[in-house]
Design brief:
5-stranded parallel beta sheet; globular; two-stranded antiparallel sheet; Multidrug-efflux Transporter Regulator, Chain: A, Domain 2; 15 helices
Length: 327
């Protein structure tokens, strides 16, 4: 059922950064960028620093499209259906967002400003300024907010700047390694871990994008789970040897595109005992499994979810079942 549109959506003020949209809709930031690039949807405003800002109506539209996809519609079809409704002047009734789900605008604006300044400092190779900004964020925000709402979108925006030719490979490497070093530091110096075997974190063979895996490692350490971080493009036979040597309770594998995902799907060949017993628990995630859900049917194990937050919750629940609740 639909109702007549009573006011033009494009008159609403863009106030939500991409991190806020992710929290409100459950759609990963990488997915939002893919939709924007492939389908021209949504079309956020931009700050002076080039960062995306979304209006409440755009958040509603994203949520509606996600609902149709969850119901079995293809992404392109869902976006076309929404555009058709808009042309007819109709809007589905279920697009209202509860005020309880809206982030505080003041906090949101603060994080946007910090992200802009951090990106500017890193593109200018100003490490001292970047260090200062990270310290300032931590004075007023938890580390989780810094990572999810400042560092993660900064990594994505700098990668986009490189792909669009707005910065050099050298600068992209410089900024990525700067942020990677900080994430590794937080992973190593997190709260005292539970006295259990570590979770193994690895990128699938041929997967070199480790930003999400690093962030996942930090967030797990914030919840007191020890991690053994293996990083980029880990051969499955080497992973199998490592797993047998340290006997972890769980293994996380990530892939962003089809080729690494296809390689990831071959893990039972190298760990047949795990495929049979379910120990350690083999889990996986990454953009390919969010954008193309049919890939989840090709991989044995537990899908972690469409967002980093969902992945952390899934692993936290799984680890409690495996370790803390075992008699």
């Amino acid at each position: 059922m639909a109702q007549k549109l009573t006011e033009r959506w494009d008159k609403e003020e863009p106030i939500y950064n991409i991190g806020a949209v992710v929290r409100m809709t459950g759609v990963p930031d990488a997915t939002l960028r893919v939709w924007e690039r492939r389908y021209g949807f949504p079309q956020p405003a931009r700050t002076a620093g080039g960062h995306r800002l979304y209006s409440e109506s755009q958040v509603r539209r994203v949520q509606w499209v996600k609902t149709q996809i969850n119901d079995g519609m293809q992404t392109r079809q869902a976006i076309r259906a929404l555009h058709s409704l808009e042309r007819e002047g109709h809007i589905p009734e279920n697009l209202l967002i509860s005020p309880a789900t809206r982030p505080q605008e003041k906090e949101n604006a603060s994080l946007i400003i910090f992200q802009e300044r951090l990106t500017t400092a890193l593109l200018a190779h100003d490490v001292e300024k970047a260090d200062q900004l990270l310290s300032e964020v931590l004075v007023v925000h938890p580390l989780e907010n810094l990572i999810l709402d400042v560092i993660r979108p900064t990594l994505a925006d700098i990668g986009l700047a490189w792909r669009e030719g707005r910065t050099t490979v050298a600068t992209e490497h410089f900024t990525t390694h700067y942020l990677r070093h900080r994430l590794l530091m937080w992973m190593l110096t997190g709260p005292r871990p539970h006295a259990v075997r570590p979770i193994v974190l690895a990128c699938a063979p041929g997967e070199w994008h480790e930003g999400s895996l690093l962030i996942l490692g930090v967030l797990l350490r914030r919840r007191h789970w020890p991690v053994a971080y293996l990083g980029q493009s880990v051969p499955l036979h080497d992973l199998a040897t490592f797993v047998r040597e340290i006997t972890p309770p769980a293994v996380v594998l990530v892939a962003m595109t089809e080729e690494p995902a296809l390689a990831l799907a071959g893990w039972p060949r190298w760990l047949p005992e795990s495929a049979q017993s379910g120990r350690p628990a083999m889990t996986y995630g990454g953009l390919i499994f969010t954008e193309q859900p049919e890939w989840r049917e090709k991989v044995m194990g537990t899908f972690l979810g469409e967002t980093l937050q969902q992945g952390v919750e899934t692993l936290d629940h799984l680890m409690r079942e495996i370790t803390l609740m075992r008699p």
